[in-house]
Amino acid sequence: MMGLRLHLCFLALFSTFLISIHGLGPLCLPEEHVALFIFGDSLFDAGNNNYINTITDYQANYEPYGENFFKYSTGRFSDGRIIPDFIAEFANLPFITPYLHPGYHRYTDGANFASAGAGALAETHQGMVIDLKSQLNNFKNLESLLSKELGDAEAKKLLFRAVYIISVGSNDYVVPFTRNSSIFQSYTPEEYVDMVISNLTFVIEEIYKKGGRKFGFPNLSPLDCLPLARALIPGNTGACKQELTALAILHNKALSEVLQKLENELNGFKYSITDTYTILSERINSPLKYGFKEGNIACCGIGPYKGINSCGGKRSVKEYELCENASEYVFFDTGHPSEKANQQFAEQMWSGTLNVTGPYNLKELFEDKWV
Ligand SMILES: *[C@@H]1O[C@H](CO)[C@@H](O)[C@H](O)[C@H]1NC(C)=O
Ligand SMILES: *[C@@H]1O[C@H](CO)[C@@H](O)[C@H](O)[C@H]1NC(C)=O
Ligand SMILES: *[C@@H]1O[C@H](CO)[C@@H](O)[C@H](O)[C@H]1NC(C)=O
Ligand SMILES: *[C@@H]1O[C@H](CO)[C@@H](O)[C@H](O)[C@H]1NC(C)=O
Fold this sequence. Notes:
By secondary structure, this protein is α/β, with parallel strands linked by helices. The protein contains 13 helices and eight strands. The two termini are 19 Å apart.
């Protein structure tokens, strides 16, 4: 066994020159190396949508996005870092590059497949975003690339030890509401949630088949409290608990149930859910307690709650206002947390105690080398 390993590493070193021009990192990964793979929507997209044919509604590659940390816009929907950036920092990894970024890639650290606006349902912003199943296909392409470059055994080991984080669902519920779609006349809330969860389940199972064992999820927030929902959705009175939040609650219950089921069915499957529903609600209700001044109104945008999606002035509505200090706000724009709020979410995902994150937190999943 040892001999075989040395042999593989020798071969790997031998081909390092070839591999480095393909932009891959070092081979013979240290035993403790744990990669991070990222899937989902704008909460996790670090810039994939910069490279697809879409419209500025689903892009954040212009000012003032990113300015408080990166000093320029990267495509992240925040004034600075997003949740996966903090998780990578906590795990001693560099920021994980968007899969579609044409530049240098160290895929041995992981990859970010997330796409702003994406949902688990293909219909959600269809043609404008990379839906979850297409993200999975990108992951499968990466898997064959890794197998070619590292050899099957090392690639398998990398995928086996890696942590997979997925943020998806909000758009599947929010989009039909912002468009006043009649979809909820065709499906009961339970049926609709079932479709979203089964699409997500399919993707989890496919990643598992490729070797993935450790999965992390934020659950859905009280969607009626997002500035965009308060400002835009017909019939929303500004209260946090209306139809959209009811769907989020159903979704969160179904997500917990399906993950428990997968844990029973799939050998070695481990997961972490963070109760972002509660974490966000607490910050909206008591911003001061968590170091914010404003929990309801966004920092950047226009209209009621700054809920009209105009931050940056490059979308259909050109007028926008920008607050002086985004760190005082829970929401940076109409649907996305400020960097400071992202940091607090990431801390809860990383090391949150059982009342917010369980059955494992991400720190435990990263440290678990023996799945
Ligand atoms: C997910 O949902 C859509 C319906 O929007 C369906 O067409 C698609 O095949 C489903 N499955 C997956 C794995 O995405
Ligand atoms: C939303 O759609 C319903 C019918 O589907 C219609 O009666 C209602 O007026 C629409 N509301 C808005 C604000 O467009
Ligand atoms: C912005 O607000 C945060 C949180 O209240 C505070 O710590 C920071 O000093 C402020 N920055 C500036 C430039 O005023
Ligand atoms: C969870 O428990 C921690 C530590 O016991 C506590 O500080 C925190 O407020 C609790 N959070 C929630 C949402 O109950």
